Structures are given as structure tokens and as C-alpha cells.
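One such shown below:
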Amino acid sequence: MKQQLIRQFCGATFFGAMVTFGSMAGADTVVTTTSNGTISEFSPESMVIRTETAPAPIHYVIGKEVTYVDDAGAPVAVDVVKSGVPVSVDYVRDGDRMVVRKVIVHKRAAVVVPAAPAAPVVEEHKTSTTTTTTREH
């Protein structure tokens, strides 16, 4: 009886392990991560993003099927993507590489430059005083 329970336990454990490993092997889970920042370098093969939170620039590899869109999801031309442009990057990890799948190009915030204060108006007034003294002789 004891041996039969041990065999059933081992069989159930083996079956459970096989089901678990089988489901893991058949599942392709892709985790996409989004990062926000400003492009500091861009080429057709790679891009470097600077973020406010990361102390160092982050290097990405451009995927073969990357899409470039604006905030509304409309496609944008690749030539819009360049250094200084604010973006969100959707990427997946492939080993130690971060492969870009989608680049969302954000509109640049309007920079309001305060007008230079007007130069003070300097008025120059010249006065001259003439004193005439008359002597009687």
C-alpha cells in the first residue's frame, strides 16, 4: 500500500512537471516596455535616448519592423526622428539588447521666451547759463 501511494505521488508529480514545462515551452510571452525621453543620437540601426530619470543615456537597437507614429497614432516620416525630438519608445529585450518596435514622436512643447525688457529711455537735457555783468565807469 505504501509503495502504491509513493508511485501515485511520483507519477502525479512527474505529470504536473511535464504539463508545467510543456506550457512554458509553448508560450511565447513578449513583454513590451515603454521609455520616455529625448533623442540624443539617431541612425537607421540605433538610437540613444536621454531621460530625466536615468543618469546615463540609454542605447536602443532599431528593430526590423519598427513603426514611427505621432501622439495620435498617425504614421510619421523617419526624417522627423532626429536629435532633440521628445519621444516614447516601445521596446522588447533580446538578451542584453533593447530592440525598438515603435517610436511615438511627441510635439515639442512651445518654449515661451520672455521679451527682453525695453531699454530705459534716457533723455538728455543740456542747459547753459550765461551771466552778464555790467560795470559802470
Summary: The chain is about 20% helix and 35% strand. Residues 2-26 form the longest helix (25 residues).
